[in-house]
Structure formats: C-alpha cells, structure tokens
Amino acid sequence: MSNTIGTIIRAFGIMAWLIAGWFCAVAALYAAVVWIVGLPFSLGHAGILFSIVLLLRMVYPRNVFKG
Amino acid sequence: MELGKPGEGLPSWELKLVKWGLIPLVRIFFTWGIGHRLFQCEVKRIGKLIRSVPVNEQQKQVIIDKTFAIEDHTRQFSVNMVAEHLTITGRAVMGIIATISQEKPFERPVTIEGVKPFENKAEQIREFEAFAAEYAVFFKALSKRYSKTTVRHPWFIPFNNFDWAAFMFMHTFIHRRQIEAIIRKLEENR
C-alpha cells in the first residue's frame, strides 16, 4: 500500500471512529431518557436523533463548509 | 532526484480532498478536547518512533515515496528534521491561536517556507516534547470560545482558533506517517 493511500485510509478511519463515538454518545443519552420515562428504545429513533445532532453540528457554532 | 521547491504546495486533488472532505469532517466531529487528546497521543507515538531509530541515523536524510498532504520538497527529511518542523510549526500555530483568541489580527506572514527545518540537529525530539508540554499548559488556560478572527492557512482556507487547534493534531498525524515512511526507508537501506 502506498504512503498516500495508507494515510488517507487512516485519516478517514479516525473520522469513522469519531462518528461511531458521537453516535454512541447520542444513543446513550437517548437510552437514558427513554429508560427514565419508561418508553421502548428504538435504534431508528437514535439514528434520527444522531442525524439531527449532525445537522446542528454542520451549522453551529459555525458553518463547516464556510471557506 | 530533483524534488520540488519549498512552498510549491500539494497536488490539486489532495487540496480538494482536504478542503471539501477532511476540514468539514474535523469541524463536525472534533471538539477542543478531542483534538488536544489526539495531538498528545501523536506526540507520544512520535517520541517512541524516533527513539526506535539508532542515534547515528536520526539525522540521516532519505527520500521517501509521496505521502498524503506533504509537499514534494519535504520528502527528503530525516526523522530529526520532521521533529524540528513540528516544533517550529507548533510554536507558530500556538502564537496564532493565542493572538486570534483575543480577536487580534495576526500580523506576521504565514508561509510554508517559514516553517521548514534548517538545523537537523541531534535530540530534536526533546525540543518537540518540551513544546508539546508547553502547549498543554497553554491549551488548558485557553478560553475555548470560537474566534471570529481567522488566519488563512497558506494552502487551505481561513482558520479560526478552533480550526488551528484541530490542525495541530492533523498536521502532527500527517508527519507521524512521514516519520514511519522514513524509518521504513532507513531499514531498507541498512
């Protein structure tokens, strides 16, 4: 494997690891809330919440695509 | 072998991948704490890597294959030169963060040529580790508020204080990969 490809794979590997970490954090928070209010846990709902967090992170505290 | 000139830059596809791929991902998924923790992990890894190289080879320059986000001129460094570059750049970035965190303009020019290593002296890793310890103290005291003031990276886009703090990790990570490539080359040449 070339140095370039190896570095790109590792860089995106770090990002994948962080995405998983953020998802786990959101899912854990959601699990705690549904446990407290006595509702069933739904992975789909955790996914939706994660997408909302993702969208929020894209625009706040600053637009991530702003050059 | 004829290498590129200092400051010549990156291939266009690498610039686009960093600008439109890595920078947005870093802004979304990094926090101040994540960036700093990852940076300190890289410092430890680099220390181990450089100390694994025999002392008489630490200043030996070798030409490595192209590595992602490293310009052509930088392919001829020794492991000590990489540590020197990381020290010079780290101090420059720390200065930028300190200035723009107070919403003051950073007056000095930011250039790639200005952060090239020039000494290749022995035991550079100790200076880099001393800088990392200094940066940890600086980082702890730093207000973690996003600055409105930005300073443009010579290759990429304007960065605020958070972007520069995250850059500190990404830059160190890229050069750790360079050190690994240098070590592989040194082993091949033995």
Describe it for me?
The complex is a heterodimer of chains A (67) and B (190). Chain A is flat. The longest helix of chain A has 35 residues, at 3-37. Chain A is built from two helices and no strands. Chain A has 67 residues and is mainly alpha-helical. By secondary structure, chain B is mainly alpha-helical. Chain B has helices spanning 12-29, 32-51, 79-100, 124-141, 161-189, and strands at residues 151-152, 158-159. Chain B has a two-stranded antiparallel ribbon with strand order 1-2. Chain A binds chain B through residues 2-8, 10-11, 14-15, 18-19, 22, 54, 57-58, 61-62, 64-65, 67, and chain B through 17, 19, 22-30, 34, 38, 64-69, 146, 157-158, 160, 170, 173-174, 177-178, 181.
Key features?
heterodimer, A: 67 residues, mainly alpha, 78% helix, flat, B: 190 residues, Four Helix Bundle (Hemerythrin (Met), subunit A), two-stranded antiparallel sheet, 5 helices, globular
- The number of helical runs of chain A is 2
Major β-sheet of chain A, in short?
Answer: none
In which order are the strands of the major sheet of chain B placed? Answer: 1-2
How much strand of chain B?
A: under 5%
Going by CATH, the homologous superfamily of chain B would be dinb family like domain
What's the domain count of chain A? 1
Please give the number of β-strands of chain A.
Answer: 0
| H/E series of chain B | HHHHEEH
Radius of gyration of chain A: 16 Å
The counted number of beta strands of chain B is 2
Shape of chain B: globular
Structural class of chain B: mainly alpha
Order of helices and strands of chain A: HH
Report the mean per-residue pLDDT of chain B as an integer.
Answer: 95
Q: Helical segment tally of chain B?
A: 5
The structural class of chain A is mainly alpha
CATH topology of chain B: Four Helix Bundle (Hemerythrin (Met), subunit A)
